[in-house]
Amino acid sequence: MIRELTRPELEAEGESLGRSLPPGSLLACEGDLGAGKTTFIQAIARGLGVTGHATSPTYALVHRYRGRRGPVFHLDCYRLRTPEEARDLDWERLVSEGDSILVEWPEQAGAWLPAPSRRYRLHHLVDAGRRGLEEL
What we know:
This protein is of the alpha/beta class. The protein has a single domain, classed as Rossmann fold, CATH 3.40.50.300. The protein has helices at 7-20, 37-47, 91-97, and strands at 3-6, 25-31, 62-66, 71-76, 100-104, 118-124, 130-135. A seven-stranded mixed beta sheet has the order 1-7-6-2-5-4-3, with helices on both faces. A hairpin with a 4-residue loop joins β3 (62-66) and β4 (71-76). The longest helix has 14 residues, at 7-20.
């Protein structure tokens, strides 16, 4: 079921989710360009206790933030040309060290992506001020 949310509602949902994520969670966030994936993940990071501004790691692929319980890894797999490039992301280390792993464009990583704890899809809606959020 797709829930229609304003940006403040999407951010509140993300922060709440971040506060409730158990340690070791891997969250995958899908959706078209501009659908709100980064906004949602930034809010989740705040809920995990990240105090600095979480920026999209589109070019770096991985950003590491200090969260309340430990490292929070934010990955953006958009620039991967093939799923095989995802093997170089050192998933084992990310999973073993990270309090939480937040992944944008998880479909680009293919079978290299470890099984997500939770998976979301964001949608553009006719009302440009709203986004659709769907837990898969």
